[in-house]
Design a protein that fits this description.
Elements lengths: L12 H31 L19 E7 L1 H6 L8 E8 L5 E10 L3 H5 L5 E4 L17 E3 L6 H20 L6 E10 L5 E10 L2 H7 L2 E4 L11 H14 L12 E6 L4 E5 L39 H10 L1 H6 L11 H17 L3 H7 L9
Parallel strand pairs: 1-6
Antiparallel strand pairs: 1-2, 2-3, 3-4, 4-5, 5-7, 6-7, 8-9, 9-10
């Protein structure tokens, strides 16, 4: 089995010790602050406040934005450690006036960095210039932007955006996203290069903060290290969208969040290789025994089989809400043909799990056994 699944073999002990050591640090910190927290609770009966939701994620209406940077320079930044460059985001504020927010930008990624006419970008608002703007509260989020300036790749953007929305519908242990209608302007020549949809993904630090957790960077996690309930839901979600391009143990298109109560929460991201998107360049990992990305394969380890029915119950509960995402104003940005194909792909999942017996036979019994 390919090691990227993170489930087929147990990792060497040193990585596991590093992961557990990180959890110990979190637990120790929680214990140290507990007396102070109890004292505060005695004098303040109000419930603890959740982290403030950044303005950007308080609405789903697409934001019209102009992204200005030295495009020629950005396209030259092909290294994995490219420098931060100057950029700016301009939008209309609540008074209808243009507001420009300076931002640092840097290329990121692997395949898309080498193969796209416009590389994927990470934004950096950490210099506080975004205070009191639409982007207030953001740190270093990813910008998922067009790869090639054509309608096919723009559809891929919208299709992947929808899958983030589906994940959010199922669980808050997932990244928030916001759609942008973005114009790309060159700061050197003043030329407008393209106008395409893009979206901003909630940065891991803020995701961790709202879940009272910290981002863990250690690789080598096994299923035994992770919260079983959330892990089962994440695996079933990856199965639902037909995605095999991830690994919890290898931190490939995944993040692990360590909570103060000692749990490790798995979070998936980056879904353009999913069967629900069906990008022309997407292919299943080698040696997985599937012919294409539209063919689902259940990668969950059998040791968490007790959590499978609960995860499925969430999908059954949220079915109507998931389908509604493709009929609301944002989902309607996709061509009707793509909406139809996507919902038929989801229908195939729900047909496989129509009864508990169907779910066991068609999905759960195909879990990955250790060894």
């Amino acid at each position: 089995m390919d090691s990227r699944t993170g489930v087929s073999a147990r990792p060497a002990r040193p990585p596991r010790r590093r992961l557990l050591a990180a959890l110990l640090v979190l637990s120790t910190a929680a214990a140290a602050t507990a007396p102070r927290a109890r004292a505060q609770a005695a004098t303040d009966s109000a419930a603890p406040k959740e982290p403030k939701v950044p303005r950007l994620f308080r609405s789903e209406e697409p934001v019209v934005v102009t992204f200005t940077t030295n495009i020629r320079q950005i396209r030259r930044d092909k290294s994995e450690k490219a420098p931060w460059r100057w950029g700016a985001l301009t939008y209309q504020d609540s008074a209808g006036k243009p507001a420009q927010v300076p931002v640092r930008v840097r290329t990121r990624g692997i395949w898309r960095l080498k193969n796209c006419s416009f590389p994927p970008i990470r934004l950096n608002f950490s210099n506080k210039t975004a205070d009191h703007t639409l982007f207030d509260g953001l740190d270093e989020p990813k910008l998922v932007n067009y790869c090639q300036d054509n309608e096919q790749y723009e559809r891929y953007i919208l299709q992947e955006f929808q899958l983030y929305r589906v994940y959010q519908t199922l669980t808050p242990v997932s990244h928030r996203v916001r759609l942008l209608r973005m114009t790309y302007a060159d700061s050197a020549g003043g030329k407008r290069e393209a106008e395409r949809y893009a979206f901003i993904v909630e940065d891991p630090a803020h995701l961790a903060k709202r879940l009272s957790a910290k981002v863990l960077k250690q690789t080598g996690a096994t299923p035994a290290d992770l919260d079983p309930e959330q892990l089962a839901l994440a695996y079933l979600f990856e199965y639902f969208i037909g995605n095999l391009d991830f690994s919890w143990g290898g931190l490939h298109n995944t993040e692990l969040l360590g909570t103060t109560d000692g749990r490790v929460l798995p979070v998936a991201y980056d879904f353009d290789y999913a069967g629900a998107v069906n990008a022309w360049y997407a292919a299943p990992p080698p040696n997985y025994g599937v012919p294409n990305v539209r063919t689902r394969k259940f990668m969950a380890p059998c040791e968490i089989a007790g959590e499978f029915p609960g995860a499925l119950a969430k999908f059954m509960e949220k079915k109507d809400a998931i389908y509604a995402l493709y009929r609301d104003p944002v989902g309607s940005l996709l061509p009707p043909r793509i909406v139809k194909e996507t919902l038929e792909y989801f229908d195939d999942f729900y047909d496989k799990v129509r009864t508990p017996q169907d779910a066991k036979k068609n999905v759960f019994d195909r879990c990955i056994r250790a060894g």
